[in-house]
Amino acid sequence: MTTQAQQTVLAAKHIVFMTGAGVSTPSGIPDYRSKNGLYTGHHNAEYYLSHAYLESDPIGFYHYLKENLYHPEAKPNVIHEKMAALTQRGQAGVITQNIDNLYQVAKTKNLVEFHGNLYQVYCTQCGQVVPWADYLKSPYHTTDHGYLRPNVVLYDEGINQQNVDRALALLRQADLVVICGTSFRVYPFAGLIDYRATGAQVMAINEEPLQLPFDFEMVQTNAVKFFEGLTLT
Fold this sequence. Notes:
- With 233 residues, the chain is α/β, with parallel strands linked by helices.
- It has ten helices and nine strands.
- The protein has helices at 4-11, 38-41, 45-48, 51-56, 58-68, 78-88, 102-105, 132-137, 161-173, 223-228; strands spanning 15-19, 92-96, 111-113, 116-123, 129-130, 148-152, 176-180, 201-206, 217-220.
- A six-stranded parallel sheet has the order 3-2-1-7-8-9, with helices on both faces. It has a three-stranded antiparallel sheet with strand order 5-4-6.
- It starts with a helix and ends in a 5-residue tail after the last helix.
């Protein structure tokens, strides 16, 4: 049975989905801040994911990422697939905090990977792009023996300005912003919503209720069930 919230999504002409780790947990990728999340199990996780740690111990950094963040076996779930389908129709764009590549696999258009992508890897010495599968075999570039790293935003690094500009451009066109799978507490990501189009509706789809400093519709439900019931014709 289609709910009013689902009808609102289907009727919108310019949707912007703002998403976080909760979108990928149904695909078997752990999130960060829940009771079973990465940050709970590893108390120094923010340091291990910092530019300072990469610089001080590139081999340790490599092993931490390889053991905790890479899940190449993961597949897009119905949330990715329905969002991707809406983008392919020209009805939506996605701004995600996720770095797991699943939106790319789902062939999402109008996609802004705000914090980068683990599966885009380059040499810090020469800048050459390297297949991620090679990175998972060795942290060294075979050409010049420089260290490899994924193109993601680490702690104490700035956001790519092009990603900021593309995200703002999407939000300025939005008639509906849908927040999904995120606590919406990480900045500057959460601050992007302040630049949404005047009059844009805001909806949050989350099992835990969000407390946000603006008017929005809280849809307290399982996002998988919500998007399973979203019938695209």
